[in-house]
Design brief:
Blueprint lengths: L4 E12 L2 E7 L2 E3 L3 E5 L6 H8 L7 E6 L2 E2 L5 H7 L1 E3 L12 H9 L13 H4 L3 H10 L15 H14 L4 E5 L7 H14 L4 E5 L3 H7 L2 E6 L2 E6 L1 H6 L1 H8 L5
Parallel strand pairs: 4-9, 4-10, 7-8, 8-9
Antiparallel strand pairs: 1-2, 1-3, 1-5, 5-6, 10-11
């Protein structure tokens, strides 16, 4: 494996009772790049994410992180190594404030447990860093706002802040702009650009204008295999990609 490859798969297969959701997928994610997985609905993109972060166990194949075979590991062990994901549906605590949500993620630095019953004095030690992370994602004015009262775009920004609190080396973002207004999309794209320094970002994304403007490399899936890989100009000209998206090989 090349030294600049941080995350890779070999022959990744996932079957569900005879249904093949992912078949022989080989991925090679370069360190400090933004790499997108795209494809039509049902192409296996989120399944790949679940395999990479071990929320699903591969039927066959192997997964490597920093050259280490992580295929046997559990999701928590993978996250502790620095491979952390967000979810397609915002996964924040709705009745806690933005600051409290980030603070819970920061508690990981004390160990493996999240001690909700700790005194306010002990928990307040995390406030400064939590406020900095909120500022990093454009939420500096919303520290005291319950997550349930944030707009959808700001909830996604909060989720990215909680992911950053885990200090990941690789962030996997599952459809970070799904369901957003144009303004929210622009805000999240700017945020991803801002946080990419020193990190590798892998994202599933349906918005091709986001992919074109943001991603260094793109892997195109159609169930259950990879049909193209390269930069946006390369994959957008590929006849199989055009057929998958437009329904006609000569479109």
């Amino acid at each position: 494996m090349a030294e600049d490859v941080i995350l890779a798969t070999e022959g990744l297969v996932k079957e569900f009772r005879g249904f093949v959701a992912v078949n022989g997928v080989d991925l090679s994610i370069t360190r400090h790049s933004i790499h997108a997985l795209i494809g039509p609905n049902g192409a296996g993109k989120t399944t790949c994410f679940n395999l990479l972060t071990k929320f699903l166990t591969p039927t066959r194949g192997r997964i490597f992180f920093r050259g280490r075979d992580i295929t046997p590991l559990k999701p928590a062990a993978v996250a502790r190594l620095g491979l952390v994901r967000s979810f397609q549906i915002s996964a924040v605590f709705p009745h806690l404030t933005a600051l409290e949500n980030v603070r819970i993620a920061l508690q990981r630095k004390r160990g493996d447990s999240y001690d909700f019953w700790r005194s306010e004095r002990v928990l307040a030690a995390f406030d400064g860093e939590a406020e900095r992370l909120l500022a990093d994602v454009g939420l500096e004015g919303f520290a005291a706002t319950p997550a349930a009262e944030l707009s959808y775009g700001r909830k996604r920004a909060l989720e990215i802040a909680t992911t950053l609190a885990l200090d990941p080396e690789v962030m996997l973002l599952d459809e970070p702009t799904a369901g957003m207004t144009h303004d929210d999309v622009e805000r999240i794209v700017a945020l991803i650009r801002r946080i990419r320094a020193g990190r590798t970002i892998v994202m599933v994304e349906h918005n091709l204008s986001v992919v074109e403007g943001l991603c260094d490399r793109i892997t195109v899936l159609t169930r259950p295999r990879v049909i193209a890989e390269g930069d946006y100009a390369t994959v957008s000209r590929h006849p199989d990609v055009r057929a998958a998206y437009l329904g006609a090989e000569d479109a």
